[in-house]
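=== Given protein ===
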Amino acid sequence: MIGNVKIFGAGSIGNHLANASRRLGWSVTICDIDPGALARTREEIYPSRYGAWDEAITLCTPEEAPKGGFDLICIGTPPDVHMDLALASLEEKPAAILVEKPLCGPGLEGAEKLRQAAKDAGVRAFTGYDHVVGAAAERAGARGTSGDFGQIMTLDVDFREYWGGIFSAHPWLAGPWETYLGFSARGGGASGEHSHAINLWQYFAHQIGAGRVTAVSARMDWVRDGRVDYDRLCAMHLETESGLIGQCTQDVVTKPTRKSARLQFEGGFVEWQCGAEPGIDRVVEAMDGKTPETFDVSKTRPDDFIRELSHIDACLDSGADSPISLDRGLETMLVIAAAHLSDRTGRRVRIDHEKGCRPEALSTE
């Protein structure tokens, strides 16, 4: 059972993870290299979101933080420093580490090294794709595998969301040029920041037995103005080991937001909708010619993180596999990297999973 958590990063995600941990009754230490970020957590972010500062939370710089004795270490920093922090965290021998999405940049630096290091250390590693452990996604996946709708025909996922909400949650940032978000090579842009879509596509493909993504064709729309270098639109066509074909689109420009997934079967459909109404995720399903049925899940944003951490705790207790395992996160990174290569070359890209999460796993056709 998890009881003691260390979190690297005092930004928005770090605060969410801290609050979720405290709601679960765990001890929390937040580390950040910027003392100003620690002060902002205590004085602004945490109390404004959750009503009051929690004096039980320890705030410190990484140098001041205790080493060892933590059950879970969370990496909630910018993606371009995830790998170094995750590798260092493994040396503390926690029961598990959680690395936020995306795991790294599209260059895949350190990705396969982390997989091997976690295996050697005997530490469970998870990635922060919390949507796939949400109640709505679990129901949609279960209905998709029920057999009630016949053979799967195609799968489409959209995460189309103007990223103004991200900057509203980080008001100390003037714009994407002040953070990794403005640089796709650092894990930002639509391809990295909204990679929940790729991960969700893969989750449903796994659920219905379609296997891993093995081919990617992509086009990206870039913003390059001397201050930033990021993709604002990433549109992908994906194919799996079984031959399932579908599309996945991510952007940082769409208003109002549209986040959805649709599994189209021979005899009907199952659709997942994020934020179908304020505070509600929804699953819609229908057999051909029948009136659609809906299943609503009421939740808040903090609920997402409580459910995610509860899932990790349960996996540690039971030893069960997880859809947010490091391996699944690395599969998502391979698709991100393949999308970038496809856009650069104008060619379809094949993924050879036997070569690990490395650039040499990708080849153009």
